[in-house]
């Protein structure tokens, strides 16, 4: 089975395109492209960025990017990388929920107290003195 990097390298060489030209046009470092072609995926680059680079590189070479990305994910899973740990999931907004409750409660208090003072007749507020 041909790896993703070998496939990229052979496709690029068949189209007689220089790696430097690809690097300049895609604005991806030539070292990163070399690493992708040599199947040496650096640890300093997140998997999400590598997938983006592979997608751009595949589009540039007019290759099927979806199948290449799937093959890359399979290949990386065999290399003991755990994609679930590297692709972060959004944090649950626990703090926002309690903040929302507090603001709602304060708003209800303010609105109800303003209605109370607005709709009480003014003569009820002043004490009556017996004379």
Characterization of this structure:
Helix content is 68%, strand content 0%. The N and C termini lie far apart (107 Å). The chain is an all-alpha fold and 131 residues long. The chain has two domains: 83 residues, lambda repressor-like DNA-binding domains (434 Repressor (Amino-terminal Domain), Orthogonal Bundle); 28 residues. Helix 4 packs antiparallel against helix 5.
In short:
It holds the Pfam family HTH_25. It contains eight helices and no strands.
In percent terms, what proportion of residues is strand?
under 5%
Tell me the Rg in angstroms: 31 Å
CATH H-level name of the largest domain... which superfamily?
Answer: lambda repressor-like DNA-binding domains
Provide the number of structural domains: 2
Order of helices and strands: HHHHHHHH
- Alpha-carbon distance between the termini? 107 Å
Number of distinct helices: 8
What is the β-strand count? 0
Helix content class: 55-70%
pLDDT below 50 for ≥5 consecutive residues: which ranges?
Answer: none
- So what's the CATH class of the largest domain? Mainly Alpha
Largest sheet: none
Average pLDDT confidence is: 80
Question: What would you say the CATH architecture of the largest domain is?
Answer: Orthogonal Bundle
Pfam families: HTH_25
Keywords: Membrane, Transmembrane, Transmembrane helix
Transmembrane segments: 98-119
Protein name: HTH cro/C1-type domain-containing protein
């Amino acid at each position: 089975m041909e790896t993703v990097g070998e496939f990229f390298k052979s496709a690029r060489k068949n189209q007689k395109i220089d790696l430097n030209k690809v690097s300049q046009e895609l604005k991806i470092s030539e070292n990163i492209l070399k690493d992708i072609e040599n199947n040496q995926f650096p640890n300093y680059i997140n998997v999400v960025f590598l997938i983006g680079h592979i997608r751009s590189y595949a589009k540039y070479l007019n290759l099927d990017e979806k199948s290449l990305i799937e093959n890359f994910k399979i290949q990386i899973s065999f290399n003991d990388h755990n994609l679930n740990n590297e692709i972060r999931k959004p944090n649950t907004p626990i703090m926002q929920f309690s903040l929302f409750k507090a603001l709602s409660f304060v708003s209800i208090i303010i609105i109800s107290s303003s209605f109370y003072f607005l709709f009480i007749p003014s003569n009820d507020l002043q004490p009556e003195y017996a004379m």
